[in-house]
Amino acid sequence: MAKQIKVSLIGNPNTGKTSVFNLLTGLNQQVGNYPGITVEKKEGVCKLSRGVKAHILDLPGTYSLNASSLDENVVIELLLNRSDKDFPDVAVVVSDVENLKRNLLLFTQIKDLEIPTILVINMADRMIKKGISLDIPLLEKELNTKIALISARKSEGIDKLKELIESYTSLSKKPCVNALSFAPEYFDKLQKAFPDQSLYKLWLVITQDINFRKVDKQEISITSDFEIKSKSELKRLQQKETIKRYQFINTILKKGLTIDQKAATGMRERLDRILTHKFWGYFIFLVILLVMFQAIYDWSSYPMDLIDESFAWLSEATREILPSGPLVDLITEGIIPGLGGIVIFIPQIAFLFLFISILEESGYMSRVVFLMDRIMRRFGLSGKSVVPLVSGTACAIPAVMATRNIENWKERLITILVVPFTTCAARLPVYLIIIALVIPDEKVGWIFSYQSLTLMLLYFLGFGTAVGSAWILNKVLKIKSKSYFVIEMPGYKVPLFKNVAINVIEKTKAFVFGAGKIILAISIILWVLASFGPNENFNNAEEIISELHPNLAQEELDHKIASYKLEYSFIGYAGKAIEPIVSPLGYDWKIGIGIISSFAAREVFVGTLATIYSVGSEEEETIKNRMASEVNSQTGGPLFNLASGISLLLFYAFAMQCMSTLAIVKRETNTWKWPMTQLIFMSIFAYGVALIAYQVLK
Which of 336, 355, 412, 666 might form a disulfide with 406, Cβ 3.0–4.6 angstroms? Predict the structure, then answer.
């Protein structure tokens, strides 16, 4: 068995840690959660020389070991528990050459834990442009470590880093600074009380209010000769420790780092003045959104048409090749149309993730967060709440998880409650198919179409509703709070193709496979319910229809029989039972079934209708065409018209139809009170808005 080195990748946010992780692991990585908590866990495998492999664990971004968020707690907890299966053989601390002073604070703390540590200085390609020069041998000597100077953008220095990882046993474990020398009497007593423990680890256990599993914090409180200090006193000691570390860092950087100010350029400052301007900043952001949504439509139309036609052809070809029977009917009428209902949206979902990844990689998303903080404060939210609201455009689940970085409980709770209003990728399939059916495919001017503008308005509607709900909740929830907004502005950079590609592939794959499991199961259940009936009306459908319509052509007769059997199937009776509830919204019983089934996940709606409309059909016809040809039995016109279409769009804009999000909200709030409140309020609100829209427009 090949030897495997356990490596923890650690660093401040925006240092290029993810880029280093992607360069080391490529697509040999997987994403999960740490046991019992919602913090994301990324790990992968890197091949070194002579059959040696490195298991790389990408730890959450952290500024220091003085934890202020759940992400930072995870880092500290892992580094303090040698019995943890992920405890590293070597720690790789990633820093940014332009922010080396700040990044080295975390490095000196990790060195104090007596773990073999490698310092990676990233973005070396920017050194000449910024007029920066480093004395690497001097820094290695002063920091008591080995340094890998790399450029993740140009993939330079990675081989050197791999060599250092492989030879980690030669690294010194000694600290590079005596950061606890500012209060000798206190720390001497602490060491005497626990002579077998690392002094710095004891200090972390005392100052951090987190669960350290096998590290027993209560031992300290029962020691009679040890002085217990108050929280305020401990905070003052932490500040002194930080000052001590920065004094050491300043001293070595004066000798090991020089910056030629004449060579440095001020492009970043000039761009910031424009992109965060109180008028032009919002205008530019609006234009970027318009271009993004128009591109989602234009670029994805060809692959979507190809996928739609391919699934229709596959269903027909399967029916012709295989012998007829219930199993073939299940495959051609249930499984293939159901999966086609989600696969068709892969291009548009992939493009959505592509644009979000580019905005994040370029450094622009941080400017958006800063820009939107001016608005958020008026609604009782911090700028930190914008991060979950913006990330909610991809998926509400990680967006709810992202609220853990909001220290203030009131702001965090409000953000959790309103995040599901933002338009996530799961709503996208519903929006796209309904917009295509009821909104004209015509251009406004030369560039933007009515359809892309409608999609953008739905995104704004979701965001506006979230912010408005936050304002109401801020007034209703009587929780005293005070918070501050701090955000780091990373340097602008051209997005790395590899990072963007991996992000798009991983997130699209997770979305499709996650939704695919639900859709496949529901498609099979729906087909069974639609293919069998409880009485003679279903079983004798052919005879009944033949007697009622003796002169019809065979093709039209078959269509009548299929419709009749569907109406008197198990799913038909279920749909008829709920039709009185949904008919005021302009929906028939088939749409009602789609809405009920999509409470598991919104994207199931399209797959459900694809399955229902395919039952009994032997024609090679696309999902969109089947839906467009549906007739409203009450009016005799198209079922999907402007009134019913807008009603459906608004219903899905506001309804809480995602069981996974409810489960995550329960976990984050540790009670069913808030997720059930979300479900009930959002469902009633969605129904009311959809009802008003249909009644006004019909």
Answer: 412
Output the pLDDT for position 130.
78
pLDDT, one tens digit per residue, over 137-175 is 999 999 999 999 999 888 889 999 999 999 999 998 888
Residue 438 has pLDDT above 60, yes or no: yes
Which tens digits make up the pLDDT trace of 656-676? 877 767 777 887 777 888 888
Question: Are the CB atoms for 115 and 173 separated by under 8 Å?
Answer: yes
Query: Cα torsion at 491, 495, 498, 502 (round to 10°)?
Result: 90
From residue 580, how far is each of 86, 111, 451, 586, 602 by CA, in Å? 56, 68, 31, 11, 22
Q: How confident is the model at residue 461, as a pLDDT? A: 92
Say how far apart CA 221 and CA 206 lie, in whole Å: 10
- What is the rounded distance in angstroms from the CA atom of residue 439 to the CA atom of residue 650? 14
Within 8 A by CB and 6+ apart from 133, the residues are 127, 257, 258, 259, 260
Q: What is the pLDDT of residue 402?
A: 65
CA distance 577 to 599: 17
pLDDT tens per residue across span 210-224: 544 444 444 444 444
Show the 3-state SS of 562-610: HHHHHHCCHHHHHHHHHHHHHHHHCCCHHHHHHHHHCCCECCHHHHHHH
Cross-strand partners of 118? 92, 146
Q: Vertex 333, ends 327 and 339: CA angle to 5°?
A: 105
Delineate the domains of the chain, giving CATH numbers in brackets.
1-185+229-265 (3.40.50.300), 290-476 (no CATH), 519-697 (no CATH)
Q: Are 21 and 58 in contact (CB under 8 A)?
A: yes
- Give the tokens for residue 270: 């000039």
Pairing of strands 90-96, 4-11: parallel
Structure tokens at 135: 């004395």
Is pLDDT larger for residue 271 or for residue 444?
271
CA separation for the pair 423, 413 (Å, rounded): 19
